[in-house]
Amino acid sequence: MTDLSALPANLPGPLDDGDCDHLPGARVPSVPLPTTAGNWVDLAGLPGRTVLYVYPRTGRPDEPLPGGWDLIPGARGCTPQSCAFRDHHAELQAAGARVFGLSTQDTAYQREAAGRLHLPFPLLSDAELRFAAALRLPTFEVEGHTLLRRVTLMLREGVVEHVFYPVFPPDRNAADVLAWLAAHPA
């Protein structure tokens, strides 16, 4: 099986295609999303700063990755990205930001990943793509599934304050967010 915690050396990086250019300054849509903590979160109504890292899908060690997964620019790296946000979680909180991960996987699938990876923050499920459609997040298709392209949004009081896109390499994203927060204190 594939080691999900490691990034292949020859992983193709995504290009900035402009698909997130509309996001800075956008109002976050009011779309309550189920969480791995067993509750619902409406990102539009959260006070303060929120880091929302959007990722395609978390793999499982007992299942093969979709065919050609490593060849899709920006697809691989959800586990390393989530683990980096886990490892920097206390620093992100100290910088005044809460953290959520978001994918189209259902909450039960995400709950397994959150437990296995020991994530100290909830994952949000947008299985019906309602949030993604309302915010016009970029997507791609794999094996009949619509997945979200990797993007990290800095939200403040229900507005997109900053966008990290494309995100590459994904395991460096949490450190990049911390550096941005240090340069832009609340």
Automatic annotation (TrEMBL):
UniProt entry keywords in alphabetical sequence: Antioxidant, Disulfide bond, Oxidoreductase, Peroxidase, Redox-active center
Domain Thioredoxin: from-to ranges: 22-186
Pfam families: Redoxin
Disulfide bond listed as a keyword: yes
Coiled-coil ranges from the UniProt annotation: none
Superkingdom of origin organism: Bacteria
Protein name, as recorded: Peroxiredoxin bcp
Gene: bcp_4
